[in-house]
Automatic annotation (TrEMBL):
Keyword Lyase: no
Name used for this protein in its record: Thioesterase
UniProt cross-references to Pfam families, sorted A to Z: 4HBT_2
Organism domain of life: Bacteria
Family to which this protein belongs: Belongs to the 4-hydroxybenzoyl-CoA thioesterase family.
InterPro entries assigned to the protein according to its UniProt record, in alphabetical order: 4-hydroxybenzoyl-CoA_TE, HotDog_dom_sf
PANTHER family in UniProt: 4-HYDROXYBENZOYL-COA THIOESTERASE FAMILY MEMBER (PTHR31793), NOVEL THIOESTERASE SUPERFAMILY DOMAIN AND SAPOSIN A-TYPE DOMAIN CONTAINING PROTEIN (0610012H03RIK) (PTHR31793:SF27)
Keyword annotations: Hydrolase
Gene3D superfamilies with a match to the protein in the record: Hotdog Thioesterase
C-alpha cells in the first residue's frame, strides 16, 4: 500500500494489554494523532481557525499483533475528498514490511467554528491533501 505521509509510532510500555500486545485503542490514538498533526502542520489551528474538523466516523481492521518495544509507523493518505469532508486512509506498518498490520479509516467533516455547520475544506489544507496525500 502507498501512503503519501508517514509518522513514527513508537510503542510504549503501557500500550501492551493483558494479552501481551498493543491494545486496539492505541491504534486509534496513533491514527487520530497522525491525522491531526498533519492537519495542524498544514494550517489547521484547533483553537483559532474559523473552520475545524470533526471526526464523524472511524474504523480499524486488525491484521496482526504488535508488542512493546516494537517501533511502528503510521501511513496516511486521502481517500475520498469532498467539498466539506475528507476520508483519511491509514495503515499501521512495521519497518521494512509493505503490508500494514492494521488499516483504519477516519472521516472528518469541516465545520464553521461558531455555527458548527458544514463548511468547505480550507484551501491550504485541500491543496496539501491534493498535492501530498492523494495517491
Amino acid at each position: 500500500m502507498t501512503y503519501g505521509h508517514h509518522a513514527p509510532f513508537p510503542t510504549r510500555w503501557n500500550d501492551n494489554d493483558q494479552y501481551g500486545h498493543v491494545n486496539n485503542t492505541v491504534y486509534y490514538e496513533a491514527m487520530d494523532t497522525t491525522v491531526n498533526v498533519w492537519m495542524i502542520g498544514h494550517g489547521l489551528d484547533p483553537l483559532g481557525s474559523d473552520r475545524i474538523a470533526f471526526c464523524v466516523s472511524s474504523s480499524c481492521e486488525f491484521r496482526a499483533p504488535a508488542s512493546f518495544p516494537e517501533p511502528l509507523t503510521v501511513g496516511l493518505r486521502a481517500g475520498r475528498v469532498g467539498t466539506t469532508s475528507v476520508t483519511w486512509e491509514l495503515g499501521i506498518l512495521r519497518a521494512d514490511e509493505p503490508e500494514p498490520i492494521a488499516t483504519g479509516r477516519f472521516v472528518h467533516v469541516f465545520v464553521d467554528r461558531d455555527s458548527r455547520r458544514p463548511a468547505p475544506i480550507p484551501e491550504a489544507i485541500r491543496a496539501a491533501i491534493e498535492r501530498d496525500l492523494v495517491v
